[in-house]
Fold Site-specific integrase.
Amino acid sequence: MEDIDSKIAVCNQKLKAANLGVRIGRKGRFLNLRATLPPKPGSRLTISSQQRISLGLHSTPEGVKQAHAEAKKLGALLDCREFDWTLYLKTPNEINSPRTVGDWVEQFERDYFQRRKRNHQSETTWNGDYKKILSKLPAGVLLTKEILHNAVLMTEPDSKTRVRACMVAKALAKFAGIDYDPSPYRGRYSPKRVSPRDLPTDEEIVAWLLKIDNTSWQWTYGMIAAYGLRPHEVFHLDVEHFKEGGVTLRVLAGKTGDRRVWPCYPDWVELWQLNEVEVPKIKLDKSNSAIGSSCAHYFHNQVKLPFTLYDLRHCWAIRTLEFGLDATLAAQQMGHSTQVHSELYHHWISDRHHQKAFEALINRPNCPRPP
């Protein structure tokens, strides 16, 4: 705390030089103001005396900066004989009301998990989408529109982080009752479109399945390839129903919750005996991303797979276009929005529609013929 004390000392020297009768003090982790003030309402005192005003600010560089501004404001009120205790005394309700960024974030997180069941999925969302942004805010200062706006501008424009920062800032502002909408700064970020050069052919997918010696991991590979699953979703399936036969698969949980999926190709279900369920035995008491990492680690290090498991999912999506499945239905089966689906597979969707329109155009009976 030596650095904080030195910053406080510098501020107090400035306050003294300005002939302001206010000084900044520190008690543990919190800052306060010290000045000669009139008796508090209800006090037995009858004359002014040295008293402290709690600011609710943490002992941080940002907190000291804010405390210095509050000290100058208090000094001006005293000089103008306009000081009023009602501006500084907290009501019983206000005592527990968060004021600093750290207080608001703590209450925001508590509220988040009061409205959602606390599990691996919700914790992954909190840590990945919210905590990454909130942890970069200055905890010891009062939460303001400017603090939130600076947090947004600190991220790279047109990036996924910028989109996340805008989402979190807007949610926290609404929770704290602050009038701030960062939407104009969201930018034009969209998920990376999948390049056909990155994806294996169906023949390569089959060839690599046959190279997997471990039967449970071979089954996992086959399920991802046939149903376009996220790797962690393999461990959240209605396997008892699936064992009874049929090709429709029910995903019970995962990143986007319960949904039904149909295979492309259906023949792979029978050919690879996918109804004979054999789930790999890995620890499931961890987040979805950690489960996915375990899968990726196995196929990268043990199988030496030259492409990723997510490439199998992308191939399923492209295959549905070749089958003629509507993009909206494909998006639902993949567990994401139609907008995300279109952004990821834009080239394939566009090319298919253009080709279909072109074929309809040139195959018209009255289509003009070249001379």
